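Appendix B. Chain record.
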Amino acid sequence: TGGTPVVDAGAPPAEVAAAMEGLAPAQPDAAPVEAAWTGWQEEISLAAGRFERERDALLASLRSLAGLPPAPPPG
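Structure tokens predicted for this chain:
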């Protein structure tokens, strides 16, 4: 019969190794992990954009309070 070989738990190590020859370790399905990672990347990107906008607004307010002219646009 095909399928996974059955080896006695008390078998000598060489016999166990021979039975496992060619078997690949089980791999989890990567799709859920990749989807979660993509979601986190999007969240991080959105948070970074919010941070930059809030930082720019705070710096503009501080410049205004200090009586300084607005900062030149980046670039």
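Further analysis of this model is presented in Appendix C.
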